[in-house]
Amino acid sequence: MGEGHFIKSVAIRWELVHTDDYLRNIPALAALGKEPLVFTSNVTFFVGENGSGKSTLLEAMAVAYGLNPEGGTQNYVFRTHDSHSALHEGIDMRRDLLRPWNTFFLRAESFYNVASKAEDYSFLPGGEGMTYRNPATGRRSYLHEMSHGEAFLGFIQDSSKENGLYFLDEPEAALSPSRQLTLLYEMHELAEHGSQLIVASHSPILLGLPGAQIVSFDGDRLREISYEETEAYQVTELFINGREGLLRRLLG
Questions:
Q1: Among 3.30.1490, 3.30.70, 1.10.10, 3.40.50, what is the CATH number of 7-110+163-251?
Q2: What is the pLDDT of residues 141-155, one digit of tens each?
């Protein structure tokens, strides 16, 4: 994969973040105040334990880029509940002069709200036809007429364009293993055609995307690691190859 081009690097200017007490206590985020994270691939994965700051940074970057905190494309403007942090106030992104053709932010926890708003938009002037291809049937439907996983994948497939910039927060949450393979293929095709994707994930399937940059948020700083070093890979490999022994130890 080529070098990520829409966003070159990200750092945090803590003096601009008005409520930063708990955020500064997250080691990986605190480290970004000293040294920027440089993006070296068209696909970058953020990995780490729950609470390590990966989704918080992803969300802050999306909001700083002008996207709705609850998700959607750059045309989605709505609010149901303010749950995002103030970190976006201090996000310092070095951008290329080249602008993406399309941008969106998807987060599993608020996708229901995005689906509802997509249905609302379809009834506005000019919004006719805002339906999405159902991956299971191939027919076009409103998002709420599909299962959560089908709607999530259908939205990604229909909203994605070449030369786009995409922030994805745990996209595997709604997808079966086979649908995760479909998403991996879609991500590969986007990257090959000039798109940049920044993804927070725990999926050992998605993290296996060849050529992706994997950034760990565990420990006292951000560091780039290999696929085999990820906890998602190590725990899955341990379970598959030593399931009986692992369960005996785990369950007593």
A1: 3.40.50
A2: 555 566 656 777 776
